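User: I'm writing a tutorial on reading structure tokens. Could you give me a worked example: one chain, its sequence, then its tokens, then a sentence or two explaining what the tokens reveal?
Assistant: Sure. Here is the example chain.
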Amino acid sequence: MTARLLLLWVWLLPGGAIAARADLKITTREYLDHGSVTETHYVQGRNWRMEFGEGYGNHEIIICRNDVQDHNAACQRYYRLDPAARAYTVRRVEPHKPPARHAVESGKTLTIYFDTVDTGERRWMFGHLARHVIQSERRVSEPGSCSGDGDRRIRTDGWYIDLPGAYPGRPALPAHRAAYLGIGSARCAGMIDHIEFHETGPWENGFALLETRTDSISPDAQDRREVTELVEAPLDGNLFVPPSEFHLVLFLPGQWPYGFMNTIRSGWASLVSTAEALLD
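And here are its predicted structure tokens:
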């Protein structure tokens, strides 16, 4: 569930204008210690659809629509579908706003060393010439820091292609990529570690067709993620709207928010979005 939410969070970041590109269908399989999971991603212009299947538990579908060409938002209306219940919810996604205040620095430092090496190896994959790139990350934390004590090493060995239409609305991450991604682990109790970043080599911003990741936290474990299907062909526009036989609800079964106030806030937002959807 955590990996799924992180992936969605990345997609919902604000982004720039997206030129017209071919429709895409991408099926990915991720191999983990406890088994494997699959997901299928459909893209048509600025609209996308995610289907979470084997390994994720109940079958679930996410649809993001951008009917208004507002390039400041990666997703304007967000649908969540439960095929078993033949029901769906709808949410209006508010534009991204920077935090009102910055976290207080913890007084500790997280130093990140990020090294990217293009091996020079190339091979054809799904009609694209893929490049073999190895990315190595080392995180050194001071004792007592939010990001934990000691030295952590992460290595990602992957094959990448240029496929910008795969993530509509996702911006290119800044050059200090590792620092950007490390912010979450450097926070605690309203504070944040100071992050120093050192980079070697141009970082890889392509679409990963195959990645193998190892982490010193679990040295015997290995995460492997690969694309098993990549189709560039026109898609049926009905994939990006809830089916007519599905009914609109405030909450899907088993997905009530936690806490009384969160329930009130989420319920109100859902009610407003539901009313807007019914009036469309």
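What the tokens reveal: DSSP finds three helices and 14 strands in the chain. The longest strand covers residues 104-125.
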